[in-house]
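[#protein-structures] MJ: dropping Oligopeptide/dipeptide ABC transporter ATP-binding protein here for a structure pass
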Amino acid sequence: MTAALLEVDGLVKQFGRHGARAVDGVDLRLVEGEALAIVGESGSGKTTLARCLLGLIEPSAGTVRLCGADLASLPRRRRRAVRARAQIVFQNPLASLNPRMTVERLVAEPLRLHAGLRGERLSERVDALLGDVGLDAGHRRRYPHELSGGQAQRVAIARALACEPSLLVLDEPTSALDVSVQAQILNLLADLRDRHGLAYLLISHDLAVVRNLCTRVGVMFAGRLVEVGEAGAVFAAPRHPYTAELLASAPGAGRAALMAGEEAADPGGPRRSGGCHYAPRCARRAELDGPEACARDRPTLPDGADGAACHFALATRREGRAHHDEGVSL
Ligand SMILES: Nc1ncnc2c1ncn2[C@@H]1O[C@H](COP(=O)(O)OP(=O)(O)O)[C@@H](O)[C@H]1O
Ligand SMILES: [Mg+2]
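AK: finished. structure tokens for Oligopeptide/dipeptide ABC transporter ATP-binding protein:
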């Protein structure tokens, strides 16, 4: 069995004592080299989940194990080393780069700090990293404001790669970029994954991006994972009514799929104490004339298997599906 790179159990993050739970009991597992996408509309808790996974914020409950080590129980020094195994690339590269540092310094910084490189070796490694992300030496002396959005994101990716991580968390890595640049960055990410054997946890509301980069997908609604499975299978035959809603709102190629959610009054959905978070909005529940279980019992994902956290999950339709999406196995 492949060793788990990331194991998350019962993760909860509540902001403030009386605040809603931005992440409300998430379990997930990622193995070496795997590419998992987390999709869900704005406000569903994706970024909060990512920040907990990387130890950037403390979870309120639950555990995060990275490379087999529980982050919370590690001594500070060891924690830093383990945390470096996972790096994050944020949505807005210009906001994530120090405006007073040149590209050269930005890329050198993690190498100095974590790998202790100096002088010639440092300089060579900076060149290699810039080459890796498709920037030439001419960019070394530039400041972030002198870069295009795509170039700045390449610098952010080079920084993330500096310590040779096993896992890259990509939080909407292309959504702040011009459409014409998005494909280039996606190609770069696909290429880097192949070359470095990286695992990806991709957060996106754009199903086209997910299809490009990921083999597995987890669908998040109101702080919970409501469906997990192979991307092809989930997209071809969603089992959770929310996944079905999400796909229905993404016509054609599925570009900018979940944008509608960004405008919604309560984008993350209600966080109620009992029952299913999705129940008030659920077409399936309405169709079944509001069964009580939806309001009473919290639906859970099947233990360690693909499926949906729904009392009345949609049956997977086997016939007539295979030819829509090659390689789908249901
Ligand atoms: N630092 C914070 N303090 C208080 N509430 C927060 C904070 N960060 C996020 N939230 C809330 O948590 C919920 C999930 O947010 P977020 O994780 O950013 O969702 P997503 O990335 O899916 O859009 C939202 O309701 C948001 O307002
Ligand atoms: Mg976010």
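MJ: nice. The CA atoms of residues 35 and 208 lie 15 Å apart.
AK: one more thing. Residues 252-267, 318-330 have pLDDT under 50 and may be disordered.
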